[in-house]
Amino acid sequence: LQEASFIGENALLGIPSKHTDTVVCDTVCDVRQLARSDVEKSLVHYPREARRLEQIGDALHGSIRKVARDELRRVFKGFSEGFIKALSDQLYDQPLFSGQALIKQNAPAHSMFVL
What we know:
The protein is an alpha+beta fold and 115 residues long. Helices cover 37% and strands 20% of the residues. The model has no long low-confidence stretch (mean pLDDT 80).
């Protein structure tokens, strides 16, 4: 992974329920985290987006700040700007040090991370 990467976006849909890999930082990382519970709270105000995410989740089940907001736009391409802003307002900083695990294999998957 590198700057402006994201990982764990499927966790926002509950796919999978646990992480399948461990990701460890090689250097100090400035990470933003978005929890599935925060997405669910935002979806209450955006029913159209909720339907779209449900469709995306169904399809996946069948087949298997500025930079952060830009990354959310990539993940949620075509979703309303209001919804993306609501999500970006829910992002919180999570500084990590070299050798610290960002995600751990078999840990509950409940967040997306933006580097």
